[in-house]
Design brief:
The complex is a heterotrimer. Helices cover 75% and strands 0% of the residues of chain A. By secondary structure, chain A is mostly helical. Chain B is globular. In chain C, the strands form four sheets. Chain C has a three-stranded antiparallel β-sheet, with no helix packed on it. Chain C has a two-stranded antiparallel ribbon with strand order 1-2. In chain C, strands 3-4 form a two-stranded antiparallel ribbon. In chain C, helix 1 (2-37) packs across helix 10 (252-276), helix 1 (2-37) packs parallel to helix 11 and helix 5 runs antiparallel to helix 6 (153-184). The longest helix of chain C has 36 residues, at 2-37. Chain C is globular. Chain C starts with a helix and ends with a helix. The chains are: A mainly alpha, B mainly alpha, C mainly alpha. Chains in contact: A-B, B-C. Chains A and B meet through helix 1, helix 2 and helix 3 of A and helix 1, helix 2, helix 3, helix 4 and helix 5 of B.
Chain lengths: 103, 163, 368
Amino acid sequence: MNEIVPTHYYVYLAAVLFGIGTAGVLTRRNLIVIFMSIELMLNAVNLVFVAFARHFQSADGQAIVFLVMIVAAAEAAVGLAIFLSMFRNRETLNADEMNLLNG
Amino acid sequence: MTLPIFALLALLIVVFALGVILARNPVRSALSLVMTLFFLALLYLFLDAHLVGALQIIVYTGAIMVLFLFVIMLLNLQADPEERSAVTTLGTAGTLCAAFVALLVYMVGNTGIAAGPASANFGTIQTVAEALFIRLMLPFEITSVLMLVAIIGAVVLAKRTIQ
Amino acid sequence: MWVEIGIATIKALVVLLTVLPLAGALGWVERKGSALIQDRIGANRAGIPLFGMNITLQGLVNTLMADPLKLLTKEDVTPRGADRFLHALAPVVNLFPALVTFAIVPFGDVLFIGDREINLQIAQLDVGILYVLAMVSLGVYGVVLGGWASNNRWSLLGGIRGSAQMISYEVAMGLSVVAMILTYGTVELQSMTRQQGHLIGGWVPAWGILYQPVAFILFLTAGIAESKRVPFDLPESESELVAGFFTEYSGSKHMLFFMTDFVEIIFVAAMVSTLFFGGWQVPYLFRDGFHFPWGTAIALPNLVVAILELLSFTVKMLFFCWFQIMLRWTLPRFRYDQLMRLGWKGMLPIALANVLVTAVVILLVQGA
């Protein structure tokens, strides 16, 4: 009843999460949903860090997760500010409408 | 006891993550992501990472996702009729997941690596703080500068220019 | 293992059965207290017709029996165009973090039953007070969802204002907690409360407020702002936004929102008394009885000590509940920009300076 969960199960779960996040980035058009899929990918990476920190009994992995969270927070702040400015200009957050840099 | 709990948490995480990319309404997407992050925090607690689990709830679900929901509410975003169909998204997700897992199975294999029992104060605040402030001091300081830059950038970007 | 689960369940039931009726009773205190302050009588008409007379018990029957019955039997309306699922989810999401935070509030020291030592706290987590901060962060979602799911621009405005206010004051609350963590050297609440039993100079109990008066004021203010009580109740202001983010809620959903308000009052009171006023500590009471500094010692059995500590905690908690209710009917409401300015430009620098001064003093006292 008390079998330990092998570490590679966590890595597979993280891989599935990462795949779902990538699919969201590639297929969805709403900018905010794309951004949320990026957050999913970041969390998948966090899960791998925590799983291996537990495996190797090292607290460095957890400290790195802390830093990744800070970077994600900074990215969310700036990204959402950019979205606000884009919405003020274009009245929409559809990724296909942001085509000013197209050739 | 541990394997069924892990299986349940993993299933919930995957279901809500699929909810993020498949939901039409951005508010439902955001709420699915909140649930995903919450169950991920539970998984971290399961992995003896107590501080990281608490921080995941405080920082990710408690601050970042509130920011997302705030922006969605402020801009009053509704479901976009021009979105791609859910089948395409699900198909892409399935292919990519299968590809990643296949790659990992090839590399890591079924070696059955299992973690040993954790020491008594693993994952507590003292251990993580030791790692963060002694060995990872430079990345910590750089991330604080990054945070400051992000705050200033966000304020400048979101301000309405005074005509 | 099952014994431990059973004990934890009993503790959780005890706490729940204390908090929920207390939330109802606080509704009565609010009504009667506000009536006394405003020189009127308050709600006292509804009563039980018995023995040919109307038993009203000074309005207790009205608030505790008639009001819940009314709220439960009212029609449950979901506004047209609103997201039904989110509309139903918001009150639950609002109440859940408020109730769950009581899991780490220590309401006693230890109780020895047989040869088993029971820690009078539902869960002893080693992240301690970070759990409180986490649940307070989750409390924002109730406001966000309630405002969004109502399809009503006043609710939306109340929801936006409420969530911005809550995340602003979370920062000040967190920093005042950091100062307490620095002072006591631990995040664990039971250990903090035990350390407040020491006597300074053999006479004065080392309660938190003696070490951190600034943090006390900051925490109390931030806590009142988090629970959206006056003077910070612009998100639900009765005179401006109809009822703010819970305008469109009727019947039992309204009751859930209201209950959350009172549960959060109890929670802020419990936290303030635990962190700053010694929690369950009675001055000069130790595990084996009273030890007065002038020499008298009264030996007491463990059960009596536990009951005394429980009483002490309850008294302190009730005092702060009463204090917050009095505050509501004494102070005018903050305007929204004043509120945000106070949170970011006033409390945040003071909290940071407090942390700095605390750290410097600790360094000097303990030697570098």
